[in-house]
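Sanity check

After download, print the first record. It should look like this:
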Amino acid sequence: MLMNDGVVLVLNQSYEPLNVCTVRRALVMLMGGKAEILENGRGSIASASASWPVPSVIRLDYAVRRPYPRVRLCRKEIFRRDDYTCQYCGR
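Expected structure tokens:
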């Protein structure tokens, strides 16, 4: 199997999905000790001295904080928040 043929799901330390990366990037994270394999089963990649399983799901060993998207305070967002009703008369 070629290293660029597949994609790997990357999970946060709390098993929250973060993104999808290539098999090559996943193997670099695994060999660097930054992640662990949760699911494999798509074969293996072999070199002259070693063989590694091709991961399909990996989990990072550290937590990545993802910022929550901030909602802009504008007239359109206030109407959406209030379900397009008037706060004075309720229409």
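If your output differs, re-run the checksum step. Summary of this record's structure: The beta strands are 7-11, 17-22, 35-46, 51-60.
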